Amino acid sequence: DLEGAIARSAGAHDKDVLAATLTTALARGALFVCDYRPVLGGVARERYVRAGQHFTVPLVYFAVEAASGHARLMPVAIQLDAPGDGYVFTPADDENSWLLAKLWAASADAQSWFSGTHIFRTHSVGAIFGIAALHLIQKGRLSAGHPMVTLMVPH
């Protein structure tokens, strides 16, 4: 419900133009939405951010645009405070506002990658193998030449 989401927002440069742009992109199958609420929403909701620091949970709308024969995925709208239905920034806003909205969205993307991808795939999965190997080492079920034993010796 694009029109409903825009109507619930705290505003946009021109809500009618924004609704038309998003609806047109959706109709031609060229609208993509990056919603950070499932990954980062709990951080904002539970207020895990230290006092004096700022955190955003954006909703970013992208549209495929054909420029000089090449299709490119371009951001067309960014709602920084998606859980609170904040203002929707567009390229029609002043240059610095649009740039800052893109920077905030990029920061959220990095937070999402770091917390979801890096920490889980690197540290959590690695910890599972480390704990299992330690258990097998303590039970004497891994030979002294096993690579996991070599890795665990310093620990």
Characterize the structure shown.
The model has no long low-confidence stretch (mean pLDDT 84). It is built from 5 helices and 4 strands; from the N terminus they run ααβαβββαα. Helices cover 51% and strands 17% of the residues. The chain is α+β, with helices and mostly antiparallel strands and 155 residues long.
Notable characteristics:
155 residues; 5 helices; single chain; 17% strand; alpha+beta; 4 strands
Topology:
Elements: H1 2-8, H2 15-27, E1 31-35, H3 37-45, E2 59-67, E3 70-79, E4 88-89, H4 95-138, H5 147-152
Antiparallel strand pairs: 1-2, 2-3, 3-4
Helix pairs in contact: 1-2
For the termini, the CA-CA separation is 54 Å
**Mean pLDDT, all residues:** 84
Strand content: 15-25%
Cα gyration radius (Å): 23 Å
Main sheet, how many strands, which sense, barrel?
4 strands, antiparallel
List the helices and strands in order.
HHEHEEEHH
From the helix content, strand content and strand pairing, which structural class follows?
A: alpha+beta
Low-confidence stretches: none
Total DSSP helices: 5
Largest sheet, order of strands side by side? 1-2-3-4
Shape: elongated
Q: Count all strands and give the number.
A: 4
**Helix percentage:** 40-55%
Compact description:
The chain is an alpha+beta fold and 155 residues long. It has helices spanning 2-8, 15-27, 37-45, 95-138, 147-152, and strands at 31-35, 59-67, 70-79, 88-89.
